[in-house]
Amino acid sequence: MIIIANWKAKVTTVADAKKLVAASKKIADMRVHQIILAPAGPYLGLLSLDNKSKLHYAGQDITLTEGGAQTGEVTGDMLTSVKAKYVIIGHSERRALGETDANVLLKTQHALKSALTPIVCVGEKERDADAHYLAFLRSQIDTVYKGIQTKDQGNIILAYEPVWAIGKSASEGINADDLTEMIQYIRKILGTYLTKKKADSAVILYGGAVEPENAKALSVGTGINGFLVGHASTDAKTFTALVKAIPH
Ligand code: PGA
Fold first, then answer.
1. What span, in angstroms and rounded, lies between the C-alpha atoms of 41 and 204?
2. pLDDT digits over 99-156, tens only?
3. Cβ-count burial of 220 within 10 angstroms (0-12 exposed, 13-18 middle, 19+ buried)?
4. Which pTM value belongs to this model?
5. Which of 171, 175, 189, 159 has its CA nearest to residue 221?
6. Residue 167 Cα, ligand 1 centroid: separation in angstroms?
7. Are 24 and 54 contacting, i.e. CB atoms less than 8 angstroms apart?
8. What is the set of active-site residues?
9. Which residues of the chain are modeled with pLDDT < 70?
C-alpha cells in the first residue's frame, strides 16, 4: 500500500520534522508499504534534496501555472528540483480557501507537465439522503479526467477524502462498508476514461480520520491502494503504529 503523510502546517520545527523522518525511514525500510512524506514547503526541500532512503516526497500544493511573477507560489519545477515525485492537489483545505475544480485541473496539468505524479483529492462535504453527493463526487473527478490527455489519465493518484471525516477521530470516520461502496463507485467512474483493467488497478487512496484504530479495517477488502493520513502522521509513535496496523 501507499501511505502518504500529509503534515499540513502541523509540524513547525526542524527538530520535529527530522524526528518524523527518522521514524518514517524505519517503517519504509521494512519494505512492506511505500511511505511518501508531504512536509510543508520549507521542510520539503530540506529533507528531500539529499534523500537516499526508501522514503519518497510530495509537495502539499502547486501553483496554477508555471510561475514567474507569482509571490508565494511553488511551481512543479521547483518541486522536482528538490526531488519530490508527487504533489497533493485539490485538498479540501485548499478548496475551502476558494480553489475550484477548474483550478484543480490546471494544477493537475501543471504537475503532469513537470513529470510529477498528481495526488488529486476529491470528496463530498456532507452526505444527503438523496445521494446528491455521488453526483458531486463524479463531477469533481470528471473535471480532471476530461481535461487531461488520454496518455496521462492512468498517471493520476486519486485520494477519496470525504470532508466530513477529515480531522475527526477513527470512531467518527467512514466505515469499511461505505468505503468499499465508494471505491467501487469511483472505479466505475474511472471506467469511463480507462480500460476496465486499468480502472480496476488505478491507484485510489482514502483519507479522513485514519488512525491506528481503523487502519486495518479500512484497508482489508475495501479496494483501496493506500491512505492519505493527516493528523495521525504528525506523531512518530502514532504514525508507526498506523502503518504497522496495515496488513501486507
Ligand atoms: P486527517 O486528514 O487524517 O487528519 O483526517 C486527512 C487529510 O486531510 O488529508
1. 25
2. 999 999 999 999 999 999 999 999 999 999 999 999 999 999 999 999 999 999 999 9
3. exposed
4. 0.97
5. 175
6. 5
7. no
8. 91, 161
9. none
